[in-house]
Amino acid sequence: MKFRPLHDRVVIRRLDSEEKTAGGIIIPDAAKEKPSEGEVVAVGPGGYNEDGDERIALDVKAGDKVLFGKWSGTEIKIDGEDLLIMKESDIMGIIEA
Q1: Could you give the CA distance from residue 38 to residue 67 in angstroms, rounded to a whole number?
Q2: Contacts 24+ apart (CB under 8 A), 91-97
Q3: Domain holding 57: CATH number?
Q4: Residues 13-61: tens digit of each pLDDT
Q5: Distances (CA, A) of 25 to 3, 17, 36, 38
Q6: Which whole number is the average pLDDT over 77-94?
Q7: Does the residue 88 lie in any domain?
Q8: Of 4, 27, 77, 83, which is the most buried if we count CB atoms within 10 A?
Q9: d(CA 13, CA 63)
Q10: Is 24 helix (H, G, I), strand (E, B) or coil?
Q11: Please, which residues have CB within 8 angstroms of residue 60's CB and are 6 or more apart in sequence?
Q12: Distance separating alpha carbons of residues 18 and 32, to the nearest angstrom
């Protein structure tokens, strides 16, 4: 990917949601909610502190699985792939295996 986010922004690839319910009912695409779980694709170098003389590193890194708000981020298309770009503060947490 030839895109590098700036400051405290993060690029996320949504993870696919379940196609069936627990009871085995298949959910059509039109009825699916957009997943609020994704994988971090790229991160910016971090924002600056209040004095503007030191960068604050981000807590997430490429490859992390994260949870974010339903309406968080801006949808973008890079190399034909639908991705999200959002600030690190829009991420609620990292999913640890």
Answers
A1: 7
A2: 91/10, 91/60, 91/66, 91/67, 92/66, 92/67, 92/68, 93/66, 93/67, 94/59, 94/60, 94/64, 94/65, 94/66, 95/37, 95/64, 95/65, 95/66, 95/67, 97/65
A3: 2.30.33.40
A4: 998 765 655 676 766 656 556 668 999 999 999 988 888 889 999 999 9
A5: 39, 14, 21, 24
A6: 92
A7: yes
A8: 83
A9: 10
A10: coil
A11: 10, 40, 43, 66, 88, 91, 94
A12: 9
- Residue in the structure block whose two tokens are 């640890």: 96
Domain count, the chain: 1
Q: Look at the chain and count its residues.
A: 97
Answer yes or no: is 19 within a domain. yes
